[in-house]
């Protein structure tokens, strides 16, 4: 769950770039969400979904984490089936923090 599992060898250049960006977001929580989503769904996305994914990834990570965790309401423009699918890859961050001794 903490790293790339999809090989980029069989992906076209656009999907390779997206895969890399999904696993290198800047905030580890978003790496896990977007990375797992990409590993599982990137090969099957059509061009319109790739466009939407790139648009979502252009949002600030600090905002994305709040929307995905539900600490702030998701803007209407992102209330789409694709964004919901991405959000379904949200790991249990509290469990991860406990497992690695990151809780107080």
UniProtKB/TrEMBL annotation:
SUPFAM superfamilies to which the protein is assigned, alphabetical: YgfY-like
Keywords: Chaperone
Gene Ontology process terms (BP): tricarboxylic acid cycle
Top-level division of the source organism's lineage: Bacteria
The protein, known as: FAD assembly factor SdhE
InterPro entries linked to this entry: SDH, SDH_sf
Pfam family, one: Sdh5
Membership in a protein family: Belongs to the SdhE FAD assembly factor family.
Species per Swiss-Prot/TrEMBL record: Rhizobium miluonense
Segments traversing the membrane: none
């Amino acid at each position: 769950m903490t790293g790339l599992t999809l090989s980029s060898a069989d992906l076209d250049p656009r999907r390779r770039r997206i895969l890399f960006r999904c696993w290198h977001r800047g905030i580890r929580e978003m790496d896990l969400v977007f990375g797992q989503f990409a590993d599982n769904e990137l090969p099957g996305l059509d061009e319109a979904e790739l466009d939407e994914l790139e648009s979502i990834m252009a949002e600030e990570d600090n905002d994305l984490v709040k929307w995905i965790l539900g600490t702030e309401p998701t803007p209407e423009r992102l209330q789409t089936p694709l964004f919901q699918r991405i959000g379904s890859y949200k790991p249990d961050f509290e469990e991860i923090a406990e497992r690695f001794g990151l809780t107080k």
